[in-house]
Amino acid sequence: MKARLLVFSIPCLFPATLATASSTLPPLTVSETIPAMAGVSQEQTTISQSTVTAEDIQRNQITRLDEVFQQIPGLSLSHTNGYGDQAQLRLRGAGARNVRVFIDGIEVSDTSRSQSQFYVSGMNMDDIESVDVLRGPQAGRFGADTGGGVINITTKRANAPFSGKSAVELGSYKTRRGQSMISGLSGPIDYRVSLHGENRGGYSDYNKRRGGTERDGYRQWGGAARLGLQATEEARLDSFVRYTREDRFYDWNTQDTFDSVDITSHQARLAGTHKTPSLGLTQVIAVSDSKTERAIVRGLPLPDAYKGQRSRLDYLGTWTLNPSVNIQFGADLGRDSINLSAPNYASSSPNTDVSLRTHGAFMTLGITPLDNLDFIASGRTDNQTHHGGDENWKLGAAYHVALTGTTIHGSYGTAWQTPSLYERYDVCGGNPNLKSESLRGWDTGFQQRFDSGRTILSVDWFKNMIKDQISWSSKSSARPGCPYGGNYENTARVRARGVETEFSVRLTNTLTARGTHTWQISENKLTGERLRDLPLHQATGSLGWAITPALHAQTNLRYRDQASQFGERASEYWVADFKLGWVVNETLRIHGRMENVLNRRYEEQYGRGTPGRSVFAGLTVQY
Length: 623
Known about the structure:
The chain is mainly beta and about 625 residues long. Helix content is about 5%, strand content about 55%. It has a 22-stranded antiparallel beta barrel. A five-stranded mixed β-sheet has the order 1-6-7-4-5. A two-stranded antiparallel sheet has the order 2-3. The longest helix is centred in the first third of the chain and has 6 residues, at about 40-45. It is globular and about 65 Å long. It starts with about 40 loop residues before the first helix and ends with a strand.
């Protein structure tokens, strides 16, 4: 492996500053079984980050990952279709290709899709311990293609000799959900196994106010398992597997159809950890694999099949020289592949089977010269089969003023994103001549605590510049056998900037208010045109009331400004939900909620249906 490590010095405080962990949620907590995803301690204070915990998921009765992402400032979702759809993630104006998603150390982006995006669907929310969203370039342990940021999902592990849980929920649109879990500790072994499923009758994916009539349903089921072995005090082995199957019905374009897509995804990881306490050194070596298969049926003789796979071998070491100096270093070797079969189109060459190899190495240095001052520097070098190599880096600093409860922080970083295999080799829209995108971005901000922490406010300012952004262009004519014209091109130089705000206020001992707001604007620097697929404003708010220690009520509000997609504009909207949870005893918990309480008629994308007022109720039994 060819590795060129960049070495940085930090002679002075970098002028840009960056916000610390979320003001409304607890700081980053990394599972002991996945130490590879934790950076050096100084990095935790110098990155702009939000965390949603298992407690937050239970209190808010969150049933899907996109509900988590809607609470994160700077993060926007672009829904293509209705319930269970392929929502695109965007962080700080950077597209899905610049947002990497990890589940227990497994990079889960689908290589057979444009932008190699993560499919936001199908995960059992009860498995999740925390969802950490790191905003801004993250050159280092996560890879070069992290200009928008990183989403790191950590699942639960056993914490008792034996425990179990089963839950059911019924509700509107003929919704039925169920899940079950067992976990335990036995000597040096810990394990956790879970199963889940959902069946939803659905509503018309083509908005019924525009003429949609039939119900577009959704079904999914899956399971996950993790097994850990503490071989010695210094050595540990962890394994993790996950499988999900989804069947989703949707409407193609803006009309009622009976199209459907079947999606199967599975991930696996095996990691070994060795600690040398006398040296302050922790080393991890792991192998992982993630595969997604899609079969799309559009009323044609044969389905179109898309298969994407990503395999990776990685090594990571964390060395604590002393409490003030930490070094993290590592290397990785990967292989991406796709297999596309479109028998109904491009009959001369209906199949695509290509792959690429990548390798990279990085080093991160964290220094605390004074008790209240942290510095971070990270450098990374990467090489890819089709696009050669590139180097990226990040600098950051944080300063805490103990007297006023103020933390000021900032960073500057770069990123490198190559085109996806799909964008290069799809038979109808691929372009093998695409260039790589490059991104540079900075952010600065503060966190302020008032009244002994009863009120917390965080504000971040950010700016990203994306060169050679890859977008779909409809200018070229249709290729032989293809039903549409157009292909992927390096079409724009984009500037995205904005302000992210979070706050938490404990009004009384039983009443808490929380909220977020994002103002962001994305512009094509070549034309000066604002890119309207990114909403100008997004906001969330919640008011939680602990009526009694066992009874909790919560009201949530969500607002999104107007946004355009494919030339059509969806109007601004806001929706309100009400949720109630009752812990009957240590064994039984009952919950109920009403979503879209005021029955707002809104569209997240022009022409697409959304649910009206919906009611759900369920119970959970723990043993």
